[in-house]
Specification:
Layout: H1 3-14, H2 16-20, H3 25-41, H4 65-68, H5 77-86, E1 89-92, E2 96-99, H6 106-115, H7 122-131, E3 134-140, H8 148-155, E4 163-165, E5 169-174, H9 177-185, E6 192-196, H10 206-217, E7 222-229, H11 237-247, E8 252-257, E9 260-267, H12 271-279, E10 284-289, E11 294-295, H13 323-333, H14 339-344, H15 355-363, H16 369-378, H17 408-412, E12 422-427, E13 457-461, H18 473-482, H19 493-500, E14 508-513, H20 527-538, E15 543-546, E16 548-549, H21 558-569, E17 574-578, E18 600-605, H22 609-632, H23 638-643, H24 647-652, H25 664-669, H26 671-680, H27 686-689, H28 691-700, E19 728-731, E20 735-737, E21 760-762, H29 765-785, H30 803-812, E22 820-822, E23 829-831, E24 860-864, E25 868-869, E26 874-881, H31 891-894, E27 897-904, E28 921-928, E29 934-936, E30 947-953, H32 955-960, E31 964-973, E32 979-980, E33 982-987, E34 989-992, H33 1022-1027
Parallel strand pairs: 12-14, 12-15, 13-14, 15-17, 17-18, 18-19
Antiparallel strand pairs: 1-2, 3-5, 3-6, 4-5, 7-9, 7-10, 8-9, 11-16, 20-21, 22-23, 24-33, 25-32, 26-31, 26-34, 27-30, 27-33, 28-29, 28-31
Helix pairs in contact: 1-3, 15-22, 15-28, 18-29, 22-26, 22-28, 29-30
Length: about 1050
């Protein structure tokens, strides 16, 4: 009997409350004996990849893990990844699965049970089968008919919602196993392949088991968990909470929505028994640790997690370092008093490439007005005449600040500055007195929506607090997008404005403050209850940006599901999330909820050398304070105590004796004004926060600092289900933006005074994300204004782009970076593979490559967002290659492209307990009508991504031959539909009428294997490359 039937019965073995429900003690004892006998004879349906074992330190007594993990046939990673194609395994998170070919259905197991002589126990077993509600899985043939769940709900008299479990499986609750068996006896639907129960352990997130093991090693006493339920009217959630409180004494339970329960303080001493009770309940769908969120540059709050995500290396140099090097640095710093005067003198013409300039830059106090003047002198673009635009070149503006980022000035010149638009950001807070936000005589609308009272804000929701911290993350992030200086209110306002106005400087901001004064975040448990509704409904923002996350190593979590659910139910909106800063740890490091399907996940590239050269001294200040606040200057931190007890460190900071705790306060106070000197002259800190060391590295290895590289820190895919993440990338290394002085609050009146502090420079995917937010808003304005496919303004072409359309246009704009990336932070640099890849996603966002303007660009833009498909349905669109005259840009000719097509659909939410998250599977196919060649999205039939792209080259040849192309969107498997989609097609193309049917071949053969992985962990597409190979993707018959 599978954990199927036996969970029916096993429910009793594993759950005290079921035993108690039967009445007398003697009967309960007899039931227990019966079930133990049965469980010793019948198999469970446990399977797991041989290389992936359950943590040995997790007490397996209650779950018999030692028995299950070696039982039955073992499948390789490739076989598991491919198994959803032939549809005979139910895949679960953590590489567990049920083999439905070799595993008998519950019907057959009951028949086997009935064939045995049970004697006096027969009545007891029978009563159990007909009295206990159960959670069942139904495996069906591929493809799944659209909305098949409605038939299953009626057929099995389901008492909960019927959920799709990718691939080809549904899960729901039934009144009892007995009633289900009766229905199976009369079942006439040959689509159903298998019906059964599955092992309760499948409901437990592998992350939870790892957290339990880790916390026990750290001698922690308890753990907080989150339980996802099947929605059901059968039982009130309050009754369920009461039931569990009666069974698990001292349990702190909080409910946030009808399908979610939070359990705080679960005792680790009895955690296996607690989980036994939880996971055997028929309404429990998934159990995981409560997610802790931080902004991606500082996750030091995760004291007991696997890793702390940060932007700076914490490797320390110990006494083996040469003292001669320290003396040389001291000599340089003794000359630092006149560094600013030298750089700013009109008599001296310094080049940023000179080593002396580097030393002078690092000698100036980065908080001073002198450094601000240095930025004014060296930051703007040098005058360059008669330089034509080349699509393959990235450094089009050799300047710092947002105006120098890709395509920003180009779009500003065409009026796309964000006027009459609203965007939304959730972050740590904003110092509204900073000149990039300050408006004299205007009061910020705290905790209300007001479109008219302030030039920058329409709302500021004080959810966690009402301001930002010094050097605050939220102020920096928000200014990248919407910062706009009223130059006449500040002495150097015009120069600041020229360099540091935001990408959408005329847009207004709806802000949600989630930052606590403790540098921690307070993210609402239910994003759809207040967080997203405030931004998208009350503020009416179409696009929102979120530079925070939880390090879950690419896993699809409950919060990932929440984001997908919001997007699915509100398809006119789109959410952006930072990918995270764990690229140094290699692949599969995307933070949640950036692992969601329907959001736009943003990674980071590098940018110009000038950004590095002028930004590193400022970044050194950020590093010193991040390191100081979290470690060195924190008396309760063990690293701080280690430093101030070290004789060499104490001598280096001028202390006469060891330990030197009495000097800690003075040392930390000097970090502002003498931080560079203190770090660079200290062999312990020089690698942590000495900007001079970074500048020196730029000279010795210039190839590591170019706009064609991906940033080392940028988190990489794939997700655990092998989806491509990040979606796209944008510059995020050494970005300039506003410095918060933590001077504002909701109590401020209208007579506040603003300030224009020297900007900060920082790096992280936190800062590439608001840049993409700005690009997305430009695209929104483009469509709202009514540009037609040829790039001419026409009111009849005005459309309101839905979220998937904005995502499709951004992805379609992606330019493949051809530079390098440091692999796993190990000092080894490798060349990037072409997009799409798990390092750069679909490439660097280039709105100039996707938004045409009449007579200035050599391509047209065709957008389709009204169509839908069901299973076995299709939509087709036909085009002919034509010459598109341009007097300015020749993007598609430069890139040798004829067509670039991107398909995106807002997919139904996935399941955190499932291995694969794609619910509705569409396929993008482009057929060359002359040659008959068929190209599939992402290189072959893709069964995991809801983003697919095809690029066709041979620009000149196709235009000369007027080649015709047929673009087909196939509804390969659409169980929850019909599925709407967005299709974006760019190129020198005109739309023509399609003649006849597509007549596509049905072979599943790779046309082009996707790019590989630059990390040391193996090929980038690893499993997916094999998955898309012809030999693996053979249609299986005989289900």
């Amino acid at each position: 009997m599978n954990a199927a039937l036996i969970t029916v019965l096993l429910v009793l073995l594993f759950s005290c409350f079921i035993l108690c429900s039967t009445g007398s003690t003697s009967l309960a004892d007899r039931q227990d004996v019966i079930l133990k006998k049965l469980s010793s004879k019948l198999k469970r349906n446990w399977r797991q990849i041989r290389e992936k074992r359950v943590e040995e330190d997790f007490d397996s007594a209650d779950f018999d893990l030692s028995e299950r993990k070696t039982e039955g046939p073992i499948f390789t990673v490739d076989e598991l990844a491919n198994s959803f194609v032939h549809g005979r395994k139910i895949l679960f998170n953590g590489d567990y699965f049920v083999d439905t070919i070799n595993e008998p259905t519950i019907f057959h197991k009951i028949k086997e049970l009935e064939s045995k002589s049970l004697g006096d126990d027969a009545d007891i077993v029978s009563s159990l089968l007909y009295s206990l509600p159960q959670q069942v899985y139904v495996h069906v043939k591929d493809p799944v008919p659209t909305n098949y769940q409605h038939l299953l709900k009626k057929l099995f008299n389901a008492t909960s919602e019927v959920y799709y479990h990718p691939h080809h499986t549904f899960v729901f609750t039934v009144p009892s196993i007995g009633s289900t068996i009766k229905r199976l006896k009369t079942l006439a639907d040959d689509r159903i392949l298998w019906v059964g129960l599955v092992d309760p352990l499948y409901k437990i997130s592998p992350d939870l088991i790892k957290s339990i093991v880790r916390k026990r090693k750290l001698n922690k006493n308890n753990i907080n968990t989150e339980v996802l339920l099947l929605s059901s009217n059968e039982i009130d959630i309050k009754d369920l909470v009461k039931q569990w409180k009666d069974q698990i004494k001292g349990l702190d339970i909080e409910t946030k929505k009808k399908d979610r329960i939070f359990l705080s303080g679960l005792p680790l001493s009895s955690i296996e028994k607690v989980l036994k009770t939880l996971c055997n309940h028929h309404l429990v769908r998934h159990i995981q640790p409560v997610e802790k969120f931080g902004f991606d540059g500082d996750m030091s709050f995760l004291e007991d997690e696997d890793e702390e995500e940060g932007d700076f290396p914490l490797e320390l140099l110990f006494p083996s370092e040469s003292k001669r090097k320290v003396k040389k640095q001291r000599k340089i710093f003794s000359q630092s008093d006149d560094a600013a005067n030298k750089l700013l003198s009109a008599d001296n013409e310094y080049s940023l490439e000179d080593s002396e300039t580097f030393q002078l830059l690092s000698a100036i106090n980065p908080l001073s007005d002198a450094y601000k003047k240095v930025l004014f002198k060296f930051g703007p673009t040098k005058e360059v005449k008669n330089v034509s635009y080349k699509a393959t070149e990235l450094d089009n503006h050799d300047r710092i600040g947002q105006p120098g980022l890709p395509d920003v000035m180009y779009m500003w010149e065409k009026g796309f500055t964000g006027k009459n638009s609203t965007i939304a950001i959730g972050d740590t807070g904003i110092d509204t007195n900073n000149c990039l936000f300050f408006r004299k005589g205007q009061r910020v609308p705290y905790n209300k929506v007001d479109f008219n009272s302030h030039d920058k804000f329409i709302a500021y929701r004080t959810y966690a607090d009402d301001g930002d911290m010094v050097r605050g993350h939220g102020t920096f992030v928000s200014a990248i997008t919407v910062g706009n200086i009223q130059s006449d209110n500040f002495e150097d306002g015009e120069q600041m404005k020229d360099l540091f106005d935001g990408v959408q400087k005329d847009s207004k901001l709806c802000f949600f403050d989630v930052g606590l004064p403790t540098h921690r975040l307070s993210i609402p448990h239910d994003l759809s209850e207040e967080y997203f509704p405030f931004m998208h409904r009350k503020c009416k923002a179409k696009i929102s940006s979120h530079s925070w996350g939880s390090p879950r190593k690419g896993a699809y979590t409950i919060t990932s599901k929440d984001v997908d659910e919001w997007a699915y139910e509100n398809p006119d909106t789109v959410q952006l999330f930072a990918a995270g800063n764990s690229g140094r740890s290699g692949t599969q490091t995307i933070t949640a909820p950036g692992t969601c399907k329907n959001c736009i996940t943003v990674g980071s590239s590098q940018w110009t050398r000038k950004n590095f050269q002028l930004g590193y001294p400022l970044y050194g200040d950020v590093l010193r304070h991040e390191f100081g606040d979290s470690h060195l200057c924190n008396p309760s931190d063990s690293m701080s105590n280690m430093f101030f007890q070290n004789p060499m460190f104490c001598r280096a900071i001028g202390a006469p004796s060891t330990p030197c705790f009495s000097h800690r306060k003075d040392f930390c106070a000097r970090l502002d004004t003498e931080g560079e000197k203190l770090c660079c002259n200290n062999i312990f800190l020089s690698k942590v926060c000495c900007s001079g060391s970074f500048l020196n590295k730029m000279q010795s290895n210039p190839e590591y600092f170019t706009s064609n590289n991906v940033a080392t820190f940028s988190s990489r895919g794939p997700c655990t289900d092998h989806r491509i993440k990040p979606d796209i990338i944008a510059p995020g290394q050494l970005i300039f933006s506003a410095r918060s002085l933590a001077s504002s609050s909701s109590k401020d009146g209208e007579q506040q005074n603003g300030y224009c502090a020297t900007p900060m420079a920082n790096q992280g995917t936190s800062f590439s994300t608001p840049l993409v937010l700005g690009y997305a808003n430009m695209i929104h304005q483009y469509f709202k204004q009514g540009y037609n496919p040829n790039g001419k303004l026409s009111t009849e072409h005005r459309i309101d782009p839905i979220g998937s359309t904005l995502k499709a246009v951004l992805v379609n704009s992606g330019q493949t970076l051809t530079g390098m990336v440091e692999t796993n932070g190990d000092g080894i640099w490798r060349h990037l593979n072409k997009a799409p890849s798990f390092t750069q996603g679909f490439g660097l966002v280039r709105v100039r490559h996707v938004l045409p303007f009449a007579e200035e660009t050599d391509f047209n833009l065709h957008v389709f967002q009204e169509d839908k498909v069901s299973t076995d349905d299709y939509k087709q669109y036909c085009f002919k290659a034509v010459d598109v005259p341009s007097k300015k840009d020749h993007t598609f000719k430069d890139l040798d492209q004829t067509m670039k097509a991107t398909l995106v659909w807002t997919d139904y939410p996935g399941s955190p307990s499932a291995k694969i998250q794609l619910v509705n599977n569409l396929d993008l196919v482009i057929k060359n009508e002359k040659s008959g060649q068929e190209l599939y999205g992402n290189g072959g039939r893709d069964y995991v991504n809801n983003v697919e792209q095809v690029t066709i080259h041979d620009h000149d040849s196709n235009i000369k031959n007027a080649t015709e192309f047929r673009v087909v969107v196939l509804g390969t498997n659409v169980p929850k539909g019909p599925q709407s989609f967005s299709l974006v097609v760019t190129g020198p193309l005109e739309r023509i009428e399609c003649k006849g049917e597509p007549e596509l071949t049905k072979e599943r053969i790779v046309k082009e294997v996707p790019g590989g992985n630059e990390s040391n962990n193996g090929g980038i597409f690893g499993i997916i490359s094999n998955l898309f190979s012809g030999k693996l993707l053979v249609d299986q018959e005989g289900f």
